[in-house]
Amino acid sequence: MNRLLMLALLLLSLLNIHGHSYRLAWIYGTDEICSVAITSHGDYIAAGSISSIYFFNRDGELLWKDKTGNAVESVVVSPDGEYIATGSIYGDVYLFNREGKLLWGRKTYGKVLSLSITPDGRYVVTGCEDKNVYLFNMEGELLWKYKTEGEVESVAITSDGKYIAAGSRDNNVYLLNRKGNLLWKYWTGGEVWSMAISSDGAYIAAGSKFHLYFLNRSGKALWKYWTGSAVKSVAMTPGYIAVGSENCNVYLFNREGKRLWRYWLNSPVDSVDISLDGEYTVARTLEDKVYLFNKEGKLLWEYGSEEGAKSVAISDDGKYIVIGTLYSIHLIILSEETSTSKVKEAENSQKIPDNNIEKVEPPTSQVERTSTEENYFNVEEVTLDILHIYQNGVPDKKDFTSYYYVYIPGILIFLTLLYLGKRYYNYRKKLKEER
Which residues cross the membrane (predicted)? Predict the structure, then answer.
């Protein structure tokens, strides 16, 4: 523990030295983390690893740990931290209370791909690799299961448990009621990878192979947005929808379908989360890094470690971010000046024409890293230093003006030399024939 404390203090001092407006509160050593969740006000943190379930308070104290014996791919926690539900790669579903008591455990017939819980813990819904949606009550009774034609990648449930939305790799979005009756299904034309539902069930956001869909309770598509690649993650608040796509983009939309901003990262985005007021959006990429944006699309900071970020979540109040890595859990506290800090910021990508077609090539960015000498807990302080690209993550006409003066003359010179070389070759060949 002394080593851990010393390293944490060292990392904390690094964060302060470089002037970032966030604070690393604590790091706790674990085995490999697969998923993390945090309560509305950051009072409690739940994490699932390749062998255990961890439950912490805000101060980093481990309140309890339960060995599951297999990887916990999905973990969710009720807003007040009273209930914790988990799903494993072997189909095990567990419900714990805040004290760590196992309330029940059940077996499904495929890897649990997604999990959702009502705030009062009365209902737990799972989407599984066996193509089924399962609904359990607080006593662990299986109320029903619904068979789709593909793996169920994402599920979401309303606050009262009245509606369950599911996205399947059979290209459909499903809306079911509490009794397991199908209200409707919507064909998207591609695998549905991510799903979110409003607390009252009035709206559903679904990410498919090429589009983001925004549907109402009746199954009508209010709008859709072409992303050009799979939408791997969707997070929704009463006023905003955050999206992460396979083609390295993070988006923020309002409920009316207006794209507020888009930011290109240099790796596919597989996870996003958003604060309740939409002020902050966090994104994790397959490069195992975490990025924080504000409501205007400005990149506030980038966070990574040698262990790599495997999962990320932000509290509803936007004050706490939890990151699960290969061997540890990190809790970050956002300070009051985060949104006004002088960290290098991304320009508002709202300036990009919203034509729903992304044909531009991604920019090349140069990232400067500063890290500690320690081998175990190693935090990278990363400041984006994008050359020629004006910090919005997407190239535009201004960004490439300087290239015109380099490449075009270079191409002309090359073609001229090629032409002269050919003429000289033909001349030598003719002389040789005359001899």
Answer: 402-420
Q: How far apart are CA 206 and CA 188, in angstroms?
A: 9
CA–CA separation, 314 and 116 (whole Å):
16
- Of 190-194, 293-297, 427-431, give the lowest mean pLDDT range: 427-431
φ, ψ of residue 199 in degrees (nearest 5): -60, -30
Return the structure tokens found at 150: 């593909």
- Residues 153 and 169: beta-carbon distance below 8 Å: yes
Cα 376–chain centre separation: 25
Tokens of 397: 């006409």
Residue 159 phi, psi (nearest 5): -60, -35
CATH homologous superfamily, domain 2-385: YVTN repeat-like/Quinoprotein amine dehydrogenase (2.130.10.10)
pTM: 0.74
CA distances, 137 to each of 96, 143, 298, 327 (Å): 13, 7, 42, 34
Q: Are the CB atoms for 137 and 126 separated by under 8 Å?
A: no
Q: What is the pLDDT of residue 412?
A: 80
